[in-house]
Amino acid sequence: MARYIAKRILYMIPVLLGVTLLVFFIMHLAPGNVAGMILGENATPEQIAALEHEMGLDRPLLVQYFDYLVGLLHGDLGTSYTTGDSVTNEIMARFPYTVQLTLVAAVVSILLALPLGILAAVKQNTWVDNVSMVVSLIGVSMPIFWLAVMLILLFSLKLNLFPVYGADSWKSIVLPAISLGFMNMASIARTTRSSMVETIRQDYIRTAYAKGLSRKTIIMRHAFRNGMLPTITVIGLEIGQMLGGSVLTETVFAWPGVGRLMIQSVEGRDTPMVMGCIILMTICFSFVNLIVDLLYGAVDPRVRTMYR
Amino acid sequence: MNSSARPATSEELDFLSVQKNSQFRETFLRLCQNKAAVAGMIFLVFLILLAVFADLLFDYQTTCVDLNIAERLQWPSAEHWFGTDQFGRDLLARVVHGSRVSLSIGFIAVAFGLVVGGILGAIAGFFGGAVDNVIMRLCDVFLAVPMMLMAIVIVAALGASMVNLVIALAISCVPTFARIVRSAVLSVRDMEYVEAARAIGVKTGRTIFRYILPNCMGPIIVQTTLRIAATISNTAALSFLGLGVKEPQPEWGALLSSGRDFIRDSGYLATIPGVCIMLTILALNLLGDGLRDALDPRLK
Amino acid sequence: MNLNETPYALEIEDLSVEFRTRDRTVYAVNGLDLKIRKGETLGLVGETGAGKTTTGLAILNLIQSPPGVVTHGSISVNGSCVLRIAEPEAETPEEAPVPAENAGTVKLQKETPAEKEPEKPAKAIRRKDQKPQIAEAMTEKELQAMRGKTVSMIFQDPMTSLNPVLKVERQISEVIEKHEKLSRSEALDKARQMLELVGIPGERGKEYPHQFSGGMKQRVVIAMALACNPDLLIADEPTTALDVTIQAQVLDMMKKLREQNGTSMLMITHDLGIVAEVCDCVSVIYAGRVVEHGTLEDVFDHTLHPYTKGLFNSLPNMKDRKARLQPIPGLMPDPSRLPEGCAFADRCRYATDRCFHERPEVLHRTEEHTVACHLYTPENIQKGGVLDHE
Amino acid sequence: GCGGGSSDTSDGGAAAEVDTSTLTVALTSEPDYLSTCDHDSLMGVQMNLLTYNGLMRIDMETLEPVCDLAESYTQDSDTEWTFTLKQGVKFHNGDDFTADDVVASIEYAQTFPASTTYTGAIASVEAVDPYTVKITTASPTPNLLYDLAYHYNFILPKSLIESGNDFSANPVGTGPYKLAEWNKGNTITFEAFDEYFDEARKASIPTLEFAIIPEGSTRTMSLESGEVDFVYSVASSDIERLQSTESISVTDVVSVENFFLYLNCVTTDFADENLRKAIAYGINREDIVAGALNGFGTPSYSCVSMGYAESTDENAYTYDPELAQQYLDAWGGDPSTVSLDIICSNDTKTAIATIIQAELAELGITVNIEETDDATYQAAMRTTDLTSAIVSWSPANAMTYVQRFHSDRRNQTPACLTDETMDAMVEEMNVTMDDAARSEMITDIIAYANEICPFVPIYQVNYYRAYNSALQNVVCSATGYVDFCTMSWS
Amino acid sequence: MSEPLLRVEHLKKYFKSARGMVHAVDDVSFTLEAGKTLGVVGESGCGKSTLGRTIIRLQEPTSGSVFFDGKDVSKLNRQGLWEQRRQMQMIFQDPFSSLNPRMTISQAIEEPLALYKICPDRTSRQKRVAELMDTVGLARRLYNTYPHELDGGRRQRIGIARALALNPRFIVCDEPVSALDVSIQAQILNLMQDLQKEFHLTYMFITHDLSVVYHISDEIMVMYLGQVIEKAPAEKLFANPVHPYTQALLSAIPVPSLHDRRERVLMTGELTSPIDPPAECRFSNRCRFATDHCREAEPQLLEVEPGHFVSCFLCER
Ligand SMILES: Nc1ncnc2c1ncn2[C@@H]1O[C@H](COP(=O)(O)OP(=O)(O)OP(=O)(O)O)[C@@H](O)[C@H]1O
Ligand SMILES: Nc1ncnc2c1ncn2[C@@H]1O[C@H](COP(=O)(O)OP(=O)(O)OP(=O)(O)O)[C@@H](O)[C@H]1O
Ligand SMILES: [Mg+2]
Ligand SMILES: [Mg+2]
Question: Using the beta-carbon criterion (under 8 Å), do A39 and D221 form an inter-chain contact?
């Protein structure tokens, strides 16, 4: 297992390299003059050229990229164009918030989605099934930010239960987590339902019935773990979605996370910062996927033995 | 076999007139039994008709572009069913024309993603080996970045415009489709009829297009509908971040996000496009689910 | 009801099962009668789709519902009734002719003159309702107590009947734990013993199904089915998925175990060779109905029904390689559009007009050997020689 | 904690009791730097005003320079100035403020290329004695006092400059507030500086917290819920409702920041004055204000904002389609061949351009809207490739403003209009040290500018600051700043 | 003896797998006369299908050669192979997966006709399809139906018609009847025998049903873990199986009769893994007679009596 984990982590390296390359070149596709933007409108062309030289922007792109990579290997993500601060510091200041938000959203959505999905599957074609699937369909189709604004209107302004913005108390995280997690909850619930429905039809479930086990035992012992397999994969993907969706949620709720930093940096054409955010998110996502794979192995012995 | 080569009489070829009862038709009939899916389908057809005939209903220039500051921010009324926006334009007209923009963004981006991703996935799945490895590792790179972030970066780099938006969304669709098509191809590739095709001398291209792809359509169609839904919702999200289509093009996401400024006093401005997006995504999801069930041979 | 007084481990009478899907109704079992004496093995032979598995599942009341509905009949195991359903229209089924609108689901008339009626006559509760009436049925609790303990079942495909994520020993032990009121660890011990019994080293119980080969999986399934010494074992084509050599091993083992425990068995198969090897009696089933039943000798050497005969003729002759096979022409009828008369009529060389319109009744050659065919009359059945033997 | 403890206020709204020890301000975006010389952004300056002082400061109401760290000043010649410094002033780190700090700070500022406009005129700074500084300019510089009030020239402690302090992370100055905590991306907290030298301007609210809330509707809602006491920038769609909310006050300041349509007068048809004027007369600015700004802006007809003492509307344009047509005819070209591609770098600009598009359509001129981000926009402004853009500008004084009309600005905006008469007028003004005479000259320049129409003015921004009604002494300047020192809770 | 229709020499097919080389077919040689049927039996996974596929080059052999009518098929280039396919066809095991669900019966049968331009125009192609359908006993009304509407027997007939369309001389039949019920199985077996007579076909008939293979084959080849362990004319093999594995295999057939029962030779254990097998007799770990010698070297396929080949140390001695 340890070898497998090591292999997976090693495998992340080329992927990350690919991501850096991709993002670096996409970002440099963009028109616009970074030095000019930093210096403001009063700067003279000479000043701009000087700054460009100082920042190394006048060198070939590949050279810049390799410099960046070398820095990256030393844990140095460069210097932000807009704040002049170390990108690593800036991102790390915000990273815990994003982790917190995504984790809470993920945990909440999973805790809600699993029972919902299982219930719907077990009570297939009853009103329970219909209601829970309607709820999750609505969840899937509701634009995140619309939900966010609605949540604020209802819970903060009308009911005064939760703060509108910020990241100070446990209360602050409730609304962002709901708005971020709802959509994902919905799709996790849907996957759970369909995989449970599928599992329930399997031969070994029939075998279990033939053994005289009670329905509850069968669902919990036999169907649940098998039904979880596709769900685990989907949860991994959904966490990726949440990392992406955090851009929106963090903007609406003024949550000081990486997503918001990223969109801010995109607007400010702060390439090192954008790269940093993307790399960090990618690493997170890759780790989530690693954990998902490990979990998958924990649940499914077939996978486990494959990597022994 | 032993009959000599005399021309066939019409009677002999009578059997030709027996109607084909294709699987598509059957699937369709089965789909029609699913009320939710039919509802979704009807809604989508309605939308597509709206999008196609939008010009007949509302003149684009006068209703969607020209300003009428005097009538700004009017609540829905008999005259303006959906009210008017901050420039006094009829929201209904903009929503109708917006359906064209939104749907075409969704459809074009997904179509592009489907074609490119489909070809890549089919190649990877069919040939396997090094080709497969290269394509899949590339997909890994794209998939390692959360889709939304990738779209943001691409739009930000290329500049916000409808074309770039479509490009960004299409690119972020490609790896997903490549993977799905690949796994579908893999599941079909080793079927005996593919081997049988080789045995009777069918060439590679024809094998892929006539034997493999048609039989992978199930998951692909389902994924396509769901993907269109996701794309429409991502467009809306990008519009919200200011990376969407340009004014005065009435894309739904843009309508929704520009309406959000007025959500407190003129709630309809955000709610109506929001509901439109929701209904469309809902319809696509219902249709997708219905298709999944209808295509599932076990439920026959 | 008095338990264990009946000589039968299993009695099925006039069982009808339908699968009602949206676009059609499949009449899977149509008035099927079966009896297995205690300690005996009955072979249930028939083509694909004849309703063999459905019958097996019905005994455990495990037919997937929807779409499956048991519309008629009664099933009792060891004399205790699993299920009894009365058909509302039929006032007195003994005499009532087949109602016209019911032609599709034709119910066989009851003819079991030799056997005593069970204590509770079926007509006791009979309504003029439209729906089949459940006259008597086990509660879910009783069913659970019965499944795995009194009756256990081995399913067709060993590859899919084991849960891939649970250890093999756990899968065996849970049935023991459930029925024998043992603790978890005791049950696990017993499970390992069961594995040894079917020829798998006990310590391999810690492994998962995918680490086992097909034959071993089937043995695990058998161990599971036999773990609680059931009175009745339903084996649904237990060896179809296996190679001949492995099949021989498994059958051999099953025979041994059955003999040790005195278990009655319903052996579902389509292989007459297996029947010849394992069973005491055979029932040949066609389109959901038993067309011929008898001891091995009855059926193999005094074949009565043209279908049974056809089955034998279809098999390659091991004595004469060059002999041409004589297949039964045609196909089994579509189970959703069963003909009015004998379901076999259109494939039958001997079919007369009557065969197409009237459902044949069950006739006895001996007390045990029965056949449902219009070729026979009470007279000629004893004489035999109706089918031309080559 | 922060958020004004609002999560405990159960019955909602700003009406609930407020925590008078704290003032929570919602900002749209985070300042990039808290240091003086690294930026030239409104938010950054606003923060600088809290922690630093210059020798002079701009009075927020009159927009005139007044003494701040300087006790007094004398102008010894056209190029020589002597400043007497206040005594007993302390930096946040405990250092005493002396002339050496002034010298060090100004020389420090001069090392930043971006500060040239404000420090370039200063030829030398000398400490005559600990509380006297002598500044010599290279040429007569009537703007010097304004320059000294500009954030680049704010005074930092010499010791920290020499030790290479990061003034962004550790902004030590003499200001009324000192930085308590900067929670990146989230909040910036300041605490009142007890030893502040100016009793009259000493902060009355102990803690000042800035929360970064990018979404307009979220800002408004947090004010309504009472979590925030002051919203720096109110989304225009919310102004009306906030104005009618009892517990919330909204100040409305017509700023000197004006938005105009910058036209390429070098390589396009807009080199022709008549065509520019046709456009200037063809735009209904009332509509723009109503449509794009929800009515919260002030139409602007003169090339320099109204609001400076020198402002004038002489020769200013109006909305007059007929006149516009006349100018178009005078230009003589075919309007359908004119294509006006407007670069818009944010949503408001896009909305403005949308309306311009609709209105110029009546003159037969096609408008294309090009939405870009800031970097692209800035890059475009440095070339002659663009046709036009919506640009805003808000100099602290009219003189700085009119200097913009001089052709030496061509190296920054090469496509702008150059005019010899204008150049001469500006050059003359630049060396006129007499205040009254200079004012008059500025007015003349504005009138002349309106005549040659270097660009098309559109509107002046109204700054809307919304806050809890319990806040008193809210002073908001036309240049965009808010004086947080004078604010107090009632 | 004249040149046989098919001569296979030292044919090997290995697959790479995660745990090593799968020796699916390991050094197989045999010949097959025209018009005859060679039955191939063996346990699941012993390489029967792989052998069949490799012979008609649906899979590239790892080494060895296949001479068809004197021509080395394994050396043909693409075009040559394509031409060769007219001569060599295959019928597949699973009638449910060997037909493209998206093609009607006629399309499936027409496909090879069109590809090899056998019939000049559409009408003649349609006629030929109808003829083929007649030949294999498919009603013409099924012309435009899809495979999923049909039962297994009919589908298998389509597969046969498709293989016949090119008028091949040699057909590899990979378990064509094992998915079918006995009554249908008999129909198909009869059909195949009739066709063989009518068109002078040569079959390689793969199955694991010994009674079927006995019925249809002239010669039977028993495979074990990729190797041929015994090959003999059908009667000879059944009358006198030499290899212990063959003996066990034959005794394991359940006989559908109450009278002539055989003595069971029960085998223990199961097929071992074909991955990198050691150089020993591959059956040795299950063999009742295995000696140390068996575990040290691989036996060779030897002709113990005319036409009867066995690979076992027992008869070498
Ligand atoms: N869940 C179901 N839904 C619909 N029809 C069903 C279902 N289960 C069985 N049937 C139908 O009932 C009939 C009898 O099926 P059953 O499985 O009992 O046959 P069988 O004799 O066991 O066949 P096999 O030899 O293939 O196992 C078939 O026609 C089958 O299609
Ligand atoms: N494409 C392949 N890649 C890897 N291994 C393969 C491949 N095809 C077959 N094998 C392996 O080769 C061996 C022989 O397989 P083959 O299918 O020829 O056996 P078979 O005798 O036809 O079995 P069955 O009776 O089950 O059809 C098996 O171990 C199988 O796993
Ligand atoms: Mg069955
Ligand atoms: Mg095979």
Answer: no
